[in-house]
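// run 5 | inverse folding | seed 20
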């Protein structure tokens, strides 16, 4: 079995490690070194998105996103309590929170709505 490990190249490993831990990833010290912080989620995946319907993202663009089964309101409360500035968006597929990491990169936390996804599939 393979595990997907997107690599984010950052200016400050410790600041980014704390940021992603705050989002809910688990820091694994035994798999880390000073120039590499290994953080895990309960599962991983890769999404492939048609750039022509992506609201302005060019082919080749890569974004870091996490999906959650947690209510976004609960995620929002947790992020606010930890001092994260973030915004909640309605999306074509459900909703998402966008938060900016220490390097200025926007990260998404997505709440996928199965009903919206089924409706979108039936329109194809």
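// decoded
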């Amino acid at each position: 079995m393979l595990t997907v490990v997107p690599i984010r190249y950052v200016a400050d490993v410790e600041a980014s490690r704390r940021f992603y831990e705050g989002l809910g990833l688990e820091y694994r010290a035994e798999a880390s070194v000073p120039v590499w912080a290994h953080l895990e989620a309960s599962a991983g995946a890769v999404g492939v998105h048609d750039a022509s319907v992506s609201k302005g993202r060019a082919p080749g663009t890569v974004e870091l996103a996490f999906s959650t089964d947690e209510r976004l309101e609960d995620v929002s409360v947790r992020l606010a309590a930890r001092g994260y500035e973030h915004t909640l968006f309605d999306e074509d597929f459900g909703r998402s929170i966008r938060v900016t990491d220490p390097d200025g990169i926007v990260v998404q936390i997505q709440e996928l709505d199965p009903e919206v996804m089924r409706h979108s599939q039936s329109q194809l």
